[in-house]
Amino acid sequence: MDLQFDRWVSLHARLAREKVKSWSLDALPRHLRRNSLDYYYLSVWPGLSALEPVESVELPPRPAVTESMYVHIPFCSGLCNFCSYFLKVVRPEDSPAIGEYITDLLREVEIHKRDSALDISYLYLGGGTPSILHPGQLDRFLSGLHDMSVLAPSLLGTIEIHPELFSDDRRSRSFLDALTRNGLRRVSIGFETDDAHLLEATNRRHDNTFLTRAITLLRDRGFVVNVDLMYGLPGQTLTSWIRSLGVALAARPSSISTYFTFVDSGTPLWKACERGEIRLPDHAEVQAQHVSAQTVLEEAGYFELPNDFYSIRDPARSFTQESLPSDANSLALGAGSYGYYSGVQYFNVFSFEMYRRKVRAGQAPLWRAAKLSPTEIFCRDIMFSLKNAPELRGDLFRVRHGKTPWDAYPEIFAELQRLELIDVMATSAVLTSKGRLLVEEVACLFPVEGSPSRVPSTAAERQRVRKHNFAPTYARLRNSA
Q1: What is the CA angle 448-450-451, rounded to 5?
Q2: pLDDT tens column, 105-136
Q3: Which of 84, 95, 131, 311 is the most exposed place for a label (fewest CB within 10 A)?
Q4: What DSSP state is assigned to residue 342?
Q5: 167 band by pLDDT with thresholds 50, 70 and 90
């Protein structure tokens, strides 16, 4: 079996290298060649540096009904060397402080209920490490939401789980019981890699033997399971990456998310890069890993959306775009969280003290925000539709914006077609298999250039913005070419 697996790994490594060569990926313009220092994981736009203090922004009223909520649980047992998210490393003796944070989250919900009817059908608990919560703390938070009647009967709830949860059988079962009692049926496990050396180098704080046992436990209890994997890690080889794909596939999760390693300012990984202690993989290495994910997972019956998210094919499911991203209405809950509504991108405060003070005074803990212009909303719709939808639908853009993306930006789309990254039809545009390897890089062609950088006045605020300023930098490469 091991020999057969090794042959399977070698085969897919060869196929991936051949495809990278045949697609001439290294001949792409510099701003379309993926690299860890400039890569932009498209989850929010604009970034913090382009936002203003919320006090100086005339915010529109909240929508009458809010249906989506992101909850940030900013606690971890340690710091992964690539992590740039807002969090605090905690120990078991910090449990009372975490309990106070849960109380403050519920206070914040009450504050938002004054401005919008909360009927949450999509709830996502991220971090940080939501699974660091004691089962009783998790149950108190979720049951508190139920008691406030803010969760819809059709709730789709997801929680991120760190593998360390499964090192304690009693605690993991109690944690899953709390999820079941409160109607959360989807979990996302941060497996990241099967390579023990990489797990140690990135300070992941778990071994590589837990996955099959964990997914069996989850599946037996009726959970839908997603597994996260990371490619492009320093020291990660193509064969190591494909082995991790194979280990994940053997457990047959409902979906697999693959994430490219990006290096943000101030992280331990960034500091190691600055000191010259590690070598980041080049574009060809990265894309060979990326290509192998496409070929391996699609061969195994998984369907890819253009965002490195692979789901088991189900004929009953429809992978279509029914609305534009600007129609979304997402509520941010917790310190370090972010949301969007009615053309407003905003962040909550990145400070535990400030968060606690605001919610206990009955104030929404907003920090920085921007009211986007119609052109910015149009560009944002292009970016997030490329990222999260199987196609750009011309009819949706015409109804919302009076034009299609390819009508508004004919030169960009002509170049993307010439590079065989996108196919443009009469009514839609679809990224090619080659284009799906570069979804963020393609999306970064569309942000409105020249948006002012609004630097905070205090040193502490400036440091927070620099550390957490998730924003595109590929435009800089394009302009310097």
Answers
A1: 75
A2: 999 999 999 999 999 999 999 999 999 999 99
A3: 95
A4: T
A5: very high
Displacement of CA 414 from its chain's centroid (Å): 29
pLDDT at 471: 61
For the cut 60, the answer to whether the pLDDT of residue 451 exceeds it is no
Give counts: helices (H), strands (E), the chain.
18, 18
Predicted confidence at residue 235, as pLDDT, reads 94
Does residue 330 contact residue 340 with C-beta atoms inside 8 Å?
yes
Rg (CA), the chain: 22
Helix 394-401 to helix 374-388 angle (10° resolution) is 160
Q: How far apart are CA 174 and CA 375, in angstroms?
A: 49
pLDDT range class, residue 464, cuts 50, 70, 90: confident
* Residue 351 exposure: Cα atoms within 13 Å on the Cβ side: 16
Other beta carbons within 10 angstroms of residue 192's beta carbon come to: 24
Taking the C-alpha atoms of residue 455 and residue 199, their distance in angstroms, rounded to an integer, is: 36
C-alpha 441/C-alpha 33 separation (Å) is: 8
What the block records as the tokens of 106 is 């519920």
Instruction: Of 178, 230, 232, 237, give the one whose Cα is nearest residue 204.
Output: 230
3-state secondary structure of 329: coil
**Helix, strand, coil shares, percent, the chain, to 5:** 45, 20, 35
Residue 29 has pLDDT above 90, yes or no: yes
Using DSSP, state whether 232 is helix, strand or coil. coil
With beta carbons less than 8 A apart as the criterion, state whether 348 and 367 touch.
yes
| Residue 281 CB-density burial (10 A; 0-12 exposed, 13-18 middle, 19+ buried) | buried
The contacts of residue 377 (CB under 8 Å, 6+ apart) are: 326, 343, 401
Cβ burial, residue 430 (10 Å; 0-12/13-18/19+): middle
The H or E element that residue 476 is part of is: helix 474-480
What was the pLDDT predicted at 436? 94
In terms of DSSP H, where are the helices of 320-438? 352-360, 374-388, 394-401, 405-408, 410-418, 433-436
- Give the mean pLDDT of 1-30: 92
Q: What letter would DSSP give residue 93?
A: G
Task: Give the type of residue at 412.
Answer: I
User: 305 with 388: CB under 8 angstroms?
Assistant: yes
Domains of the chain and CATH, by start:
48-312 (3.80.30.20)
Q: Is the pLDDT of residue 220 over 70?
A: yes
Q: What whole-number distance in Å separates Cα of residue 470 and Cα of residue 43?
A: 8
